[in-house]
Write a structure and sequence with these properties.
It holds the Pfam family PDZ_2. By secondary structure, the protein is an alpha+beta fold. The protein contains eight helices and 21 strands.
């Protein structure tokens, strides 16, 4: 026993130290694990957001959406030879009769005064236009004005107690918002389809000159053109205009003209008979990496001035062919389309500051925006880099 006595105190001290470590430093004996943060949904908040039915929204907007029927007289034969009486007597008299081509589309009543927005391609070239309301009334419409650059047109009908749609700004749209399309697809009658906003600001699709489309997967088919795209509150957010399809029917990619753009075009057509757009009078092309390197630029964000219209706003402000536009209105240039569209939205008379790169130096210039002239009012030969017309 005396021989083991010398071992008791070391063993007892070790036990006491182990107990102290377990009490005061428990993490030393805990297995090491990797911490992963997982955010779980609070089931108490519910899974549904928004209404279970959009009937109220549809009821509010549907009466303002109309069917449009057009008739176009097309001669069977346009050859002058067949108008010769000596030739006609040798042929069937009915062989040169005119034929009637009918088409259909949709429109939206934007004001109680009877102004209706639709697509230009719905009524282009039509000899007569008939508008049919949801309540069964019909009226012959006259064209107030049209704008092929945005594929919009404004019609006017004279009927009492016209329902008009409420317009919501398209600037507040978000991808994922509920969208409902109302129109007359294939002539079956007024139809409502539902989807979401798939994208905003779609451009460079080659459909119109000025593109800023809302993309939606709400079904849009032939006959829906010119109809309403509304939000979950029943307010107009766009005018349905086109689809991307390999079959001719809806494949979940439809495009609508934003309500803000449609409202501006409608107001211009009613007040001026034309759409007033800003213009600076330049022809520009985007900078390639090779051009950027040759000019000593750090990136390709800019536009090279390929031509300037003589006596136009840019020419008066001192811009020269070969200059490189770096900024317009204090904003860096993204691409030529966005720059053209931003200038077009400016009212004539606006003083537009621009930053240009010329011969290795950055210059600040100011251009007074003018109204965009028609094709016949401006020379089609801008002054080029050689100073020639």
């Amino acid at each position: 026993m005396q021989r083991l006595a010398f071992l008791i105190w070391p063993i007892l001290s070790g036990i006491i130290a182990a107990v102290a470590l377990l009490i005061y430093l428990p993490d030393m004996f805990t297995p090491q694990t990797n911490t992963v943060q997982i955010h779980e949904a609070d089931n108490r908040s519910g899974t549904a957001q928004g209404p279970y039915s959009y009937a109220d929204a549809v009821e509010q907007a549907a009466s303002s959406v109309v069917n449009i029927y057009t008739r176009t007289v097309i001669p069977n034969n346009n050859a002058p030879l067949y108008n010769d009486p000596n030739i006609q007597k040798h042929y069937n008299k009915n062989s040169n009769k005119e034929r009637i081509q009918s088409s259909l589309g949709s429109g939206v009543i934007l004001s109680p005064e009877g102004y209706i927005a639709t697509n230009n391609h719905v009524i282009s070239g039509a000899d007569s236009i008939v508008v049919a309301l949801k309540d069964g009334r019909e009226a012959t419409a006259k064209v107030v004005g049209n704008d092929p650059d945005t594929d919009l047109a404004v019609l006017k009908i004279d009927l009492p107690d016209l329902p008009s749609i409420t317009i919501s700004s398209s600037a507040n749209l978000r991808v994922g918002d509920v969208a409902l399309a109302i129109g007359n697809p294939f002539g079956v009658g007024q139809t409502v389809t539902m989807g979401i906003i798939s994208a905003t600001g779609r451009n460079q699709l080659g459909l119109n000159t000025y593109e800023d489309f809302i993309q939606t997967d709400a079904a849009i088919n032939p006959g829906n053109s010119g109809g309403a795209l509304i939000n979950a509150a029943g307010n107009l957010i766009g005018i349905n205009t086109a689809i991307f399809s390999r079959s001719g029917g809806s494949q979940g990619i439809g495009f609508a003209i934003p309500s803000d753009q449609a409202k501006q075009v409608m107001q211009d057509l009613i007040e001026h008979g034309r759409v007033v757009r800003g213009w600076v009078g330049v022809e520009a092309q985007e900078i390639t990496p090779e051009l950027a390197e040759s000019f000593g630029l750090k990136d390709t964000k800019g536009l090279i001035i390929a031509g300037i219209f003589r006596d136009g706003p840019a020419h008066t402000a001192g811009l020269l062919p070969g200059d490189i536009l770096l900024e317009i209105g204090g904003k860096k240039i993204i691409n030529s389309y966005n720059s053209m569209y931003s200038v077009a939205r400016l009212p004539p008379g606006t003083v537009l500051p621009v930053k240009v790169w010329r011969n290795g130096e950055v210059l600040q210039l100011e251009i007074t925006v003018a109204e965009r002239p028609s094709a016949t009012e401006v020379s089609t030969e801008p002054e080029n880099s050689d100073g020639q017309n």
